[in-house]
Amino acid sequence: MKNFLIVIFVLLNTQLRAQQNKPELFSVDAFITQVKLYHPVAKQSDILVQKAAAQLLASRGGFDPALTLDASRKTFDGTNYYFYTNPELKIPTTFGVDIKAGIESNGGKYLNPEVTSGNTSYLGFEVPLAKGLLIDKRRAALQQAKIFSSQSEQERLQVINNLLFDAYNAYWQWAGSYQLYAVYTKYLQLSAARFRLVNIAYKNGDRAAMDTLEALTQVQNFEMLQADAVLKINNAAIELSNFLWQQNDSAFQLPEQYVPDTVQFAVSLAPQPLEQIVAQSLIDNPLLRSYNYKLAALNVERRLKFQSLLPELNAKANLLNKDYNVVKGLDAAFLQNNYKWGINFKLPLFLREGRGDYRAAKLKIEETNYALSAKRRETENKIRSYYNEVTQYQKQLQITQDMFNNYTTILKQEDLKLRNGESSLFLVNTRENKVIETAQKLIELRVKYQKAYYAVLWAGGLLR
To answer: What is the pLDDT of residues 103-146, one digit of tens each?
Structure first.
């Protein structure tokens, strides 16, 4: 009688908890959306892009117009030695020519004879004719900053790809634990109902006392399994909570009433054809695309290092005029008599530094190409490996599902025989344990299948 009351108490307590915590569906889509929006790692990945944009802005600063002022004056013992006032506007351009314009106001008793006295103005340019003509450090830095800006987006996608893969794994582990708990709870209720019937039959003299003990041990067995399932589902919920955050950057603990999408858990999602996934990965995989951007940046560096093999030959020329209107009276005769120009030339005789830098730049490209080839092969093999798992799990799931259906049918027939007095409680328990064993295997396979399915997309860099 005492054992009977314990079973009744367990069932009533389970029903009371169910009424207090009405289940609320927490679908995988809602979960993934919350991860994308609020998870700190997802927000960190956005910062990668913002940092690259800031670096690009800083690189554009190399081409900002600059206004400078060079002013000096010397007066000593009542004598005005000199005064210089020379503001200048310099405009760098992305094609290598620096345009400059300025005005000068100079005078004094001991003025440098190279400096024009009075108010003058000038307009001119500086241009490299050999080294630095096609590319220089400023233009290389800007080109690489643009490349790194695009590469940062691929790095962001790679971070999201890894984050979502871990999130999907946590969700399906939680779904599997919940499904296992539901199975144990169902058969605990069935075994408890069977115990009540056997106990009534024992009191009526239709069953032996040993049958009540047999039925009770089955109830206790399922109570143990259910308790273990509760531990697993709680741990899985804690693991899932690691991915749950709110808009205000505070952690979000999974509510007890939340339940996973068991319908989608039981669906075997069919992946795209293998070769189609491989081809798409070779195009869209952010990890592989990052290598391509890295190669592009290295090619810019190689072009810059090649400039070290060229001689320095820089030319500069200024149009000069009196007062502050540099183009006043501009004609052919004026241009012949009002100018300033110059060149400078430099050529290292052995070019060892330039040759070494250029060779190192080429080796970096070669090294990265090898790494890219290896990564492509590794990625393709990962996709094929996980795809094989998906294919095999599909077959195993079908076989195990058929076995579960068959064992369930056998259990129902055996239970019917027991009610008609044509079977033993031992056989029913044996059949029931086989159903439970198969259900466990089926749930484990479903978890593995879901993880393998998303592992294919993760290996291809296709989780977004």
So the answer is: 999 999 888 888 888 898 989 999 998 988 889 899 999 999 99
Q: Do residues 117 and 170 share a domain?
A: no
Strand partners, 302: none
Q: Any bridge partners for residue 69, and if so which?
A: 87
Look at the chain and report how many structural domains it folds into: 2
**Chain Cα centroid distance, residue 15:** 43
SS3 106: strand
* Beta strands 258-259; 339-346: pairing state: unpaired
Q: Let me know whether 116 and 193 are in one domain.
A: no
Helix and strand numbers (H, E) in the chain are 11, 8
Nearest to 225 by CA among 446, 453, 435, 3: 435
Q: Which domain holds residue 7?
A: 2-38+139-301+359-459
Are residues 297 and 436 located together in one domain of the fold? yes
User: Which three-class secondary structure state does DSSP give residue 117?
Assistant: coil
Q: Which are the contacts of 68, defined by CB distance < 8 A and separation ≥ 6? A: 87, 88, 90
pLDDT tens digits, one per residue of 366-391: 999 999 999 999 999 999 999 999 99
User: DSSP character for 87?
Assistant: E
Exposed/middle/buried for residue 151 (C-beta within 10 Å: 0-12, 13-18, 19+): buried
**Of 141, 151, 135, 157, the residue nearest 45 (C-alpha):** 157
Is residue 72 a contact partner of residue 106, using CB atoms and an 8 Å limit? no
pTM, 2 dp: 0.85
Q: Quick count: other Cβ atoms within 10 Å of Cβ 461?
A: 25
CA distance 285 to 21: 43
CA dist 363 → 30, 298, 464 (Å): 48, 10, 34
The least confident of 65-74, 263-272, 436-445 is: 263-272
Contact (CB, 8 A) for 386 and 459:
yes
Q: Region 347-357: what's the mean pLDDT?
A: 89
Contacts 24+ apart (CB under 8 A), 412-416: 415/194
- Residue 439 gets which letter from DSSP? H
Which whole-number Å values give the CA distances from 79 to 82, 364, 408, in the listed order? 9, 63, 115
Measured CA to CA, the distance from residue 8 to residue 312 in angstroms comes to 96
